[in-house]
Amino acid sequence: MIRLNENYSKLKASYLFADIAKRVNAYVAAHPDKPVIRLGIGDVTEPLPPVCVEALHAATDEMANRATFKGYGPEQGYAFLREAIAQHDYAARGCEISADEIFISDGSKCDCGNIQEIFATDVRLAIPDPVYPVYVDTNVMAGRTGANVDGRYQGITYLDCTPANGYVPAIPGVATDLIYLCFPNNPTGAVATREQLAAWVAYAKANKAIILFDSAYEAYIRDPQIPRSIFEIPGAREVAIEFRSFSKTAGFTGTRCAYTVVPKSLMAYDAAGAAHPVHALWNRRHTTKFNGVAYPIQKAAAAIYTPAGKQQTGDLINFYLANAKLIREAMTKLGFTCIGGDNAPYIWVNTGRDSWEFFDLLLNKAQVVCTPGAGFGKCGEGHVRISAFNSRANVETALARIAAALK
Ligand code: MLT
Questions:
Q1: How many degrees, rounded to 5, is the angle at CA 388 between CA 384 and CA 390?
Q2: 304-337: per-residue pLDDT in tens?
Q3: Boundaries of each Aminotransferase class I/classII large domain copy (predicted)?
Q4: What is the pLDDT of residues 41-71, one digit of tens each?
Q5: Domains recognised in the chain with CATH numbers
Q6: Helices of type H across 127-221
Q7: Ligand 1 touching residue 43 (CB < 6 A)
Q8: Which of 155, 199, 310, 343 has the highest count of CB atoms within 10 angstroms of its CB?
Q9: Hey, CA dihedral for 27, 28, 30, 33, is it positive or negative?
Q10: With a cut of 0.95, is the ipTM above it?
Q11: Does 41 sit in the ligand 1 pocket, CB within 6 Å?
């Protein structure tokens, strides 16, 4: 008799964004005459930058020609892309990251979800609340938690992000081994200062712990004082892995390309206390279970590092940030306290009401989709997340409808 992985039974029946999509689709089916505007899931709407499209076309032509055709590429990614990343995303910002410490993949969601399998099943987890659900759910699947009691899994040290701490969690008073941090934050849009990140690096070092740093939204940081990479913090090479994505930087949600940085100086320990390079473990995992991102996609990603590519992606991000500003201003004017939207594409609105109720209200009265804060964790209750990813016209219409609905 085949047995199932019973850890799955501890999970909610469906993934947050699948659950929301189901509710929205049911509403659309019941009200075909009421067009819905989606500011829920953070999915880009604007076309790929022209440099990426040109690179895609050129690479596709190479694949059509026997002399330039490519079969399997390196699992870790082509050197042209890894070198461009090392140079433009790290060396240019004073970070010491070499091209062979960068692993190209088809998404940060997959990498954030998969990375945990190279660590022991009994590592102690520290996970923010509210949080991107993938960090929690993948650890539940792996059997690192107990049951969900009153909205929280046993065995996780939750890092509360609340109005009182500006939604940047405090260092826990207990030792933990695997720490998830995300800045600019999804869902709150909060950013962490250099001093705050330095405190996390010191905590990780003191505990021989590892920080999993998700910086998928780093391109949205406009405040020059805010670090864009954990590797801007001295000592981070010994304690951190960083996840980055082209999804929100260059509109690649449908094109799929991301990367994970695993410094060679990062160690994990065996039961006898001997140190082992995490880079070798991730390389083993990656080469066994992944066969690389398509060549044309990697060419398209590399194109964003050209002068024209930098200009075009900068324009794209500025466009979404201008949406974010409109949303934050409009929600503030309606009397809500908001954060995010200035260095992030998400606006975290403190509604002071049940978040699913507020979600239903916006859907039914304004035909606008947001994400209920409770879906990101217990501390998300009372909040909703509004995404800036949409056309200007849709954002303006959505804001007018919200204002009318809340009158
Ligand atoms: C979100 O809405 O939080 C994002 O779309 C998540 C993701 O990038 O997977």
A1: 120
A2: 999 999 999 999 999 999 999 999 999 999 999 9
A3: 35-402
A4: 999 999 999 999 999 999 999 999 999 999 9
A5: 6-47+309-405 (3.90.1150.10), 53-307 (3.40.640.10)
A6: 133-141, 194-207
A7: yes
A8: 343
A9: positive
A10: no
A11: yes
